[in-house]
């Protein structure tokens, strides 16, 4: 059976929530959303899902649909309470990243000099609070030297070096970075390293598309989805195939 790169990425995202337990999942992007919902339906039934607004879901709707379109609503939470959850650490986020450096400092605000940027992006948003209060992972659908840079233009999400220097390390918890090429995590010094390259991707391809030195020692191959995971992705969570719009099948 042919497995697409997007499906491999979705399962890698699901595995990021494997040991999270009963926390609120925050997923930015189609593939991370599928991953969080897949985790709930398989190895982490205690994971709390939301529709991205106010409803908490017992049964997730297909990708792109709202809770009213097919999800099973088990509760609701006003927006203001989300800040309480973030501050208490009972949340696990997988955010996007326009830039990431070797220590996991993330930029989603702008490209270029902040006084006169070349590109204005979505702004700092909740990245600082997320990264100093609870587990934060990153999703990068296009792994390239434009994203993985030696120095980010603006620090939004706090990396290991800055958390330690600023005394914010107590609840600082960066987990993994999942891309269309690989899964990365951090070494004891807080620097990104290659955990696994996706099937069909050479380690040299990951290194070439990373703008800083990357430790590849001990890197493995990202696991393939099981038959049941594929069924859930294809028939329940994303029957329309929106995952392939975020990750090109030939990545």
Automatic annotation (TrEMBL):
Protein name (Swiss-Prot/TrEMBL): Acyl CoA:acetate/3-ketoacid CoA transferase beta subunit
Family note: Belongs to the 3-oxoacid CoA-transferase subunit B family.
Keyword Lipid biosynthesis: no
The entry's keywords: Transferase
Leader sequence segment: none
InterPro entries in the cross-refs: CoA_trans_fam_I, NagB/RpiA_transferase-like
GO molecular function annotations of the record: transferase activity
Organism: Amycolatopsis viridis
């Amino acid at each position: 059976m042919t497995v697409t790169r997007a499906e491999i990425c979705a399962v890698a995202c699901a595995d990021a929530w494997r040991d999270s337990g009963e926390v609120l999942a925050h997923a930015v992007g189609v593939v991370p959303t599928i991953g969080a919902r897949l985790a709930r339906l398989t190895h982490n039934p205690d994971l709390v899902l939301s529709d991205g607004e106010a409803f908490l879901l017992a049964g997730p709707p297909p990708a792109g649909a709202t809770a009213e379109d097919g999800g099973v609503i088990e509760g609701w939470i006003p927006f203001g309470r989300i800040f309480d959850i973030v501050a208490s650490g009972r949340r696990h986020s997988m955010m996007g990243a326009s830039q990431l450096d070797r220590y996991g400092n993330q930029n989603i605000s702008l490209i270029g000099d902040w006084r006169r940027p070349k590109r204005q992006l979505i702004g700092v948003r909740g990245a600082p609070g997320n990264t100093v209060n609870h587990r934060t992972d990153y999703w990068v659908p296009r792994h390239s030297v434009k994203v993985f840079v030696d120095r980010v233009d603006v620090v939004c999400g706090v990396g290991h070096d800055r958390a330690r220097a600023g005394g914010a390390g107590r609840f600082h918890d960066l987990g993994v970075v999942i891309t269309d090429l690989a899964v990365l995590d951090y070494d004891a010094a807080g620097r990104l390293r290659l955990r696994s390259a996706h099937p069909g991707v050479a380690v040299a391809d990951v290194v070439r598309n990373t703008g800083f030195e990357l430790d590849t020692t001990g890197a493995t191959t990202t696991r393939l989805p099981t038959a049941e995971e594929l069924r859930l992705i294809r028939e329940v969570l994303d029957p329309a195939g929106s995952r392939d719009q975020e990750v090109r099948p030939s990545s």
